[in-house]
């Protein structure tokens, strides 16, 4: 198009040169501005989404504390910041469109004026004039598309930039191990903590300090303590979600720091406080890896008192709604116990699995744990003392340390013990 217009009207090149400079200046200025505005908009969305999520999850608490107005005002402020950035993006786009249209109009006007001048000074074919004008219109549209495509690509690459920053700024786990465990490892399920220290950040105090204890094969250990005592930190250290600052942890006499994360975590099962069920079939929820046959899944369901309930739903292919919305809290926890049973691991960790349940459901789950996991090593973190009354031993945590250890009845017999004071404070 440019060649044809220059061939027909050679003097048009005197107009194209300054217009090219203006075009380059405008598109460069807009590209940088648009990219930074997109970055600001992306940054403004994170606190907005976080606020919406917190509000939806804590809606009942917000209403109970009469904090609806405060949360609404904060949502309005965050939304205004986000919309301000979005408005600036649209305004910048219109700014660019106006100037590109003016460049196109100038180009078209220059072609028309030069055509008239050449007609008066010389002869020019009318068809050629029409061709030049049509090509001039094409050039204008082409230039608009080029700058729009470039800026849109750069703006969307801001998302790639943020993903890259997240990947680079996040500490990566050391997944590979320095040695493989011996054949038949973790057949006993013994655990040994040896002078363990951990902290979540270099500047934070230790979450665990001087923690030492041993758990024998098939032993049931209850871990109790007040909020912030360091109970859950034991599981974080055991699964290597947080690397040790000092000390060693051994499973069947093998240092877990020498194992790969896959090998370590695949040989333990955990039941968390908040039962996790995802959208899919019951079979997919209980056996995500597909390693169990139907008979094994049904056996696990019956062991966890869920056989009849699953049959009423339609069997293993029945659909589970996201987060198991149609199930009670007790049923969801029993499903998690069945999933842990199907993992066929020797060590089971239960992190306050019954803290949000009523006493009747809690008792049912405790019976399930005693019967189903009787040949497994079980660590139970509990807030309520009666949840761990049937454990072989109790570990009492306080300020990141194990302050007491012993059999439940022995600790209860001592009125000066931490266990006794926790029991009578509930």
Provide a descriptive summary of the structure in words.
This is Multidrug resistance-associated protein 7. It comes from Halocaridina rubra (Hawaiian red shrimp). The chain crosses the membrane at residues 6-26, 102-121, 127-147. It is a multi-pass membrane protein. With 426 residues, the chain is of the alpha/beta class. The chain folds into two domains: 2-168, ABC transporter type 1, transmembrane domain (ABC transporter transmembrane region fold, Up-down Bundle); 191-425, 3-Layer(aba) Sandwich (Rossmann fold), CATH 3.40.50.300. The chain contains 14 helices and twelve strands. It has helices spanning 2-8, 13-57, 59-64, 68-121, 126-169, 231-238, 261-265, 282-286, 294-303, 307-313, 329-342, 359-372, 408-413, 418-425, and strands spanning 191-198, 208-215, 220-225, 246-251, 254-255, 268-271, 280-281, 319-320, 347-351, 377-381, 393-398, 401-406. It has a six-stranded mixed sheet, sandwiched between helices. It has a four-stranded antiparallel sheet with strand order 2-1-4-5. It has a two-stranded antiparallel sheet with strand order 7-8. Helix 2 (13-57) runs antiparallel to helix 4 and helix 11 (329-342) packs parallel to helix 12 (359-372). The longest helix is centred in the N-terminal third of the chain and has 54 residues, at 68-121. The relative contact order is 0.09.
